[in-house]
Amino acid sequence: MNDNVRNLPKRSDPVLRVIPGPSDINANGHIFGGWVLGVMDQAGGIVAGRVSQGACATVAIEKMEFIAPILLRDIISVYASLERRGRTSMGIRIEVIATRERGQQEVKVTEGLFTFVALDEQHKPRPLPER
């Protein structure tokens, strides 16, 4: 059995849950990496917006790792949580789990650390609100 296929520990509710479509498939029959990056960025942006209590922008993707392919019939659950907090920026840990075979199998397909910066009305970095 692949190390990425296992009974995964219980975690909080996903920030996003999506199903890729046929137009998201590459020539190998897997989902495009850019598609999953976009989904991860959306989920991270939701969490970052909650933390910053306003507008924010993605400024970096660190430690991105594609672990297993995403397949056409997978249901994708995206989990995101605050990992680090600075003065104007925050690191959001994002993990993507594919559910396969009508819910019988879960596979961790990718994870990464995305950095977001809180923005003011002029689109300049601003301090994060107090906790």
Automatic annotation (TrEMBL):
GO cellular component, alphabetical, reads: cytosol
Sorted alphabetically, the keyword list is: Hydrolase
Highest taxon of the lineage: Bacteria
What the entry lists under InterPro entries is as follows: Cytosol_ACT, HOTDOG_ACOT, HotDog_dom_sf, Thioestr_dom
> Does Hydrolase show up as a keyword for this record?
yes
Q: Which family does it belong to?
A: Belongs to the acyl coenzyme A hydrolase family.
Official protein name in the record: Acyl-CoA thioesterase
UniProt source species: Sphingorhabdus profundilacus
